[in-house]
Specification:
This protein has 274 residues and is α+β, with helices and mostly antiparallel strands. Helices cover 31% and strands 25% of the residues. The protein starts with 14 loop residues before the first strand and ends with a helix.
């Protein structure tokens, strides 16, 4: 019997399973009773300490393919079991999507970086985590395991065993972030850039809503002029943004206003760096 260190509540008994194949993991996950997937365990253990009960924990560390980071200029596939440290230090990511490597090395403390996984970050469904807005800004899809193989789905439709996250055309993408107003709001902006022209822009907002939200624009402007259009683009984002939440950290009006401020700030920086 395990006892939670942060509470007096005991963790309910469970069986611990370690599948040798993805098919076995999927079968266990869909088996009778309640199942939970164990990756880094950072959020899961706290979840169990708060009184949630499962019949089995399914360890995924016996499936090294789930941690692989593969791909090239056409697509980048980040395994769900890849740790934050592995993402930040990946030579492939540094080559095809260097912005992600640079930014991800600034996320979390060392304990989290070397144990926490991108899959766990997404599956925790916490509004203050950076994985959801970062992947939304990159137009990423989730890859899930099915009986017929793997299938791509939108991030907000995840309901099964996640195997990876797929970023399209990484060499055509730029990624920017401003996390200076955490925990009230964070902002991630992904841009599809071809020949110096921004054809698509995805402004993903974290911490301002129960889940991350993303506003997509098609500015069709050179990167170099983004600074001059920063105010009008920020206004478009604020108009399309769902109503933020008000809580002990910030009011809805403050969050909405700060999304505009951070959007302008990032676009000015992007234009100056073009």
């Amino acid at each position: 019997m395990l006892v939670g260190l942060r509470s007096r509540r005991q963790i309910e008994p469970f069986s611990l399973r370690q599948p040798a194949t993805l098919a076995e993991a999927l079968a266990l996950y869909r088996g009778p009773g309640a199942s939970a997937l164990l990756a880094g365990g950072i959020d899961l253990i706290d979840w169990l300490k708060h009184g949630h009960a499962v019949d089995r924990l399914i360890r995924l560390d016996g499936l090294p393919e789930l941690a692989a980071i593969t791909g090239g200029s056409d697509r980048l596939r980040i395994g769900a079991m890849a740790t934050h440290a592995a993402i930040g230090d990946s030579p492939l990511i540094r080559d095809v999507l260097p912005d992600l490597s640079t930014l991800w090395n600034k996320v979390a403390n060392p304990r989290i970086r070397f144990a926490g996984t991108i899959g766990g970050n997404i599956m925790a469904k916490r509004s203050d985590y950076d994985g959801p807005p970062a992947l939304l800004a990159l137009a990423a899809e989730a890859e899930i395991a099915t009986d017929a193989g793997t299938q791509r789905i939108a991030l907000d439709r995840i309901s099964d065993l996640v195997t990876a996250f797929v970023v399209p055309e990484p060499t055509s993408q730029r990624l920017f972030a401003d996390r200076s107003l955490r925990p009230a709001v964070s902002l991630w902006i992904g841009m599809t850039v071809t020949g110096g022209q921004v054809s698509a822009m995805r402004v993903a907002v974290g911490m301002a809503h129960p889940t991350a939200v993303c506003v997509t624009l098609n500015p069709n402007v050179p990167v170099a002029v983004l600074g001059g259009q920063a105010a009008s683009i920020a206004e478009q984002v604020m108009r399309r943004l769902p109503e933020p939440m008000s809580d002990g950290r910030a009011s809805a009006s403050y969050r909405r206003r700060m999304v505009g401020v951070l959007t302008r700030r990032i676009l000015l920086q992007a234009g100056e760096g073009a």
